[in-house]
């Protein structure tokens, strides 16, 4: 062993200490996956070397045969894993092995529940698989040298997982990384060739480079110990290049876990090879759970890009639209050059064609999941529904297809679950109904009990209830579905079309005529607080509501703009009243104009509260209400 220099002892980041504690106390119920994690990391290191060597072939240092080797020593009770990938410098080692080198660390620790099974899924989500080595080892050593650095710039990292680690500079002739696991005495089962071979075949057969184990060669008596021979124990071929009929579900699932650094099986996948004008292979996966950074639109995302089986890019964003950023997978093209860059990808017409086809493939996969596995799709929607709602604005070509995948709560439900598809809504629509009715609001309770729904309840018409912050914005891009237009029941002058009988329409017109005087009195009392006053066709039980002008922003959009510091256009609500309500009848008969004004403003403020809005002058509302209460009790 070379002499160590510049040796220092450093403390782990606080979060890593907590993580190691979980690992050491058997966070994983299945200990053998430590080897999968370390092999997966080694494979990534080799991919990175391949990529960097495209522009700097000298990084290969004359050794272009890339591989991973796993060995063991029964006497020393160790397992060693070595790769000749990109390797790490001293700074890399301190950064990557001393901290959770990823944003969202605080989120990770916050989400730990103490439930081992649940927490083990989080480990995968946050990409901290290296620390799984401490499940089976009471000491871990790492020897590494980054490709391109001199042999004297090797680094030795060592830790017992107890809060600190040592790092020193050493001689290392070969680039890459060697990890030595000093197994706990109870874990000596892993210092065994047969056991390691089975684990590799089970979890890492899909890795597209050789994973080698020492070949057992019988010693001949009287001769020197034979030189160590190695044999490849995995298939070592890119899984996506194999025919679908030759790949098992278990292999697809393991490959997903490798590329996504996830511990759960995917919900669905699609493996496809395209030949003809364009030639490429794709393997796309729908995850079972959302990553912690799903709503950070700038977070790393995209497919792994290979060109003729050579790894080029880890997060190629150009192959799928942003609203499908949760999709994991690989795309391998024969039509791109190996020196492709992100800038070139953004301008290449071949990419546009591939993006269109891959987007359609993902949407088809989701349609199939929704149709064949509705319970699974329900889980998908809970995790990714809000992101899918970005689709109609981003992807005009697939707007109808995306709309078919959307799910909503409705007045027919009683728990606010978003489970109703637009196709289901239309299938149970009333005879003669040619519109899709919806209402947006802040909370399910608020929209479920909104006065705007009174006439719909009376006539038994289903209304979609939209309460996500993005919903009003979404509906500004969704004009129709299956030939039926969308109608916001709180906007404009409600017209139920064929759902209103001629008698109903005639009666409403006559009532409106008889109340023209009351309309004028209320308009005078409320002044510029409203844009218009009219008799309502929406109400059956409440005295008054506020409607939104056809071209005005709704409450959701106003709040989003205000929260982002943008100027909100001026607009005033439309005040509608129910002429049959006792309060309105009392108001109509009120001779005192001051008292009439106070009552009108109280009704206006109550309508605003019912709509989920805040009052512009709460003190004035309280004062008027108290005045009225005093008069009533006198």
TrEMBL record:
Q: Which family does it belong to?
A: Belongs to the heat shock protein 90 family.
From what organism does this protein derive?
Answer: Pseudomonas gingeri
What's a GO cellular component annotated to this UniProt protein? cytoplasm
Q: Give the subcellular location.
A: Cytoplasm
- Name of one Pfam family that matches: HSP90
List the InterPro entries: HATPase_C_sf, HATPase_dom, Heat_shock_protein_90_CS, HSP90_C, Hsp90_fam, Hsp90_N, Ribosomal_Su5_D2-typ_SF
Per the record's keyword annotation, is Nucleotide-binding included, yes or no? yes
- What is the protein named? Chaperone protein HtpG
Named from the GO MF annotations, one term is: ATP binding
Q: What does this protein do?
A: Molecular chaperone. Has ATPase activity.
Write out the residues that bind ATP: 37, 41, 83, 88, 102-104, 125-130, 177, 342
PROSITE patterns linked: HSP90 (PS00298)
Q: Where is the stretch described as C?
A: 560-634
Ranges for the Histidine kinase/HSP90-like ATPase domain?
A: 30-187
Organism superkingdom? Bacteria
């Amino acid at each position: 062993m070379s002499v160590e220099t510049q040796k220092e002892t450093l403390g782990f980041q606080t979060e890593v200490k907590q993580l190691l504690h979980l690992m050491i106390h058997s966070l994983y119920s299945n200990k053998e996956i430590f080897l999968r994690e370390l092999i997966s990391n080694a494979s990534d290191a080799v991919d990175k070397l391949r990529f960097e060597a495209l522009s700097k072939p000298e990084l290969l240092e004359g050794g272009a045969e890339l591989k991973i080797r796993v060995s063991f020593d029964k006497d020393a009770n160790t397992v060693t894993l070595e790769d000749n990938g990109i390797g790490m410098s001293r700074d890399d080692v301190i950064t990557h092995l001393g901290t959770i080198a990823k944003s969202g660390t605080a989120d990770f620790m916050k989400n730990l529940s103490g439930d081992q099974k649940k927490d083990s899924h989080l480990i995968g989500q946050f990409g901290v698989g290296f620390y799984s080595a401490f499940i089976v080892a009471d000491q871990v050593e790492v020897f590494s040298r980054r490709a391109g650095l001199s042999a004297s710039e090797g680094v030795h990292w060592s830790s017992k997982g107890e809060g600190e680690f040592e790092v020193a500079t050493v001689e290392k002739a070969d680039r890459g990384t060697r990890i030595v696991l000093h197994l706990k005495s109870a874990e000596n089962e892993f210092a065994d060739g047969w056991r390691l071979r089975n684990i590799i075949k089970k979890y890492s057969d899909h890795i597209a480079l050789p994973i080698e184990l020492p070949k057992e060669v019988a010693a001949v008596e009287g001769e020197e110990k034979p030189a160590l021979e190695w044999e490849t124990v995995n298939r070592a071929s890119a899984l996506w290049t194999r025919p679908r009929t030759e790949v098992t579900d278990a292999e697809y699932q393991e490959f997903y876990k490798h590329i996504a650094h996830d511990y759960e099986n995917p919900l669905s996948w699609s493996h496809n090879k395209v030949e003809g004008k364009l030639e490429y292979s794709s393997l796309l996966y729908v995850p079972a759970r959302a990553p912690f950074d799903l709503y950070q639109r700038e977070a790393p995302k995209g497919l792994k890009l290979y060109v003729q089986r050579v790894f080029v890019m880890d997060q190629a964003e150009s192959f799928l639209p942003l609203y499908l950023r949760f999709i994991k997978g690989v795309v391998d093209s024969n039509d791109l050059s190996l020196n492709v860059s992100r800038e070139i990808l953004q301008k290449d017409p071949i990419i546009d064609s591939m993006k269109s086809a891959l987007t359609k493939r993902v949407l088809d996969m989701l349609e199939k999941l929704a149709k064949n596995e509705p319970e699974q799709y329900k889980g998908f929607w809970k995790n990714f529904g809000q992101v899918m709602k970005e689709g109609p604005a981003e992807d005009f070509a697939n707007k109808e297809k995306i709309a078919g995948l959307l799910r909503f709560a409705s007045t027919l439900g009683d728990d606010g679950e978003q489970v109703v598809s637009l196709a289901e809504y239309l299938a149970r629509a009333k005879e003669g109904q040619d519109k899709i009715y919806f209402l947006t609001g802040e909370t399910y309770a608020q929209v479920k009990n909104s006065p705007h729904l009174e006439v719909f309840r009376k006539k038994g018409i289903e209304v979609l209830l939209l309460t996500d912050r993005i919903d009003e914005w979404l509906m500004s891009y969704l004009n129709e579905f299956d030939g039926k237009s969308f109608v916001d029941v709180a906007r404009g002058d409600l017209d139920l079309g064929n759902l209103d009988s001629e008698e109903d329409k005639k009666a409403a017109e006559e009532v409106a005529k008889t109340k023209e005087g009351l309309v004028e009195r209320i308009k005078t009392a409320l002044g510029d607080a409203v844009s218009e006053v009219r008799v309502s066709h929406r109400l059956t039980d409440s005295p008054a509501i506020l409607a939104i002008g056809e071209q005005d922003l709704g409450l959701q959009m106003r709040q989003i703009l205000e929260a982002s510091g943008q100027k909100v256009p001026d607009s005033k609500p439309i005040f509608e009243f129910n002429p049959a309500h006792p309060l309105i009848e009392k108001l109509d008969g009120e001779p005192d104009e001051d008292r009439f004004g106070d009552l009108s403003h109280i009704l206006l403020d109550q309508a605003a509260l019912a709509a989920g809005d805040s009052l512009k002058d709460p003190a004035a509302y309280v004062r008027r209400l108290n005045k009225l209460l005093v008069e009533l009790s006198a």
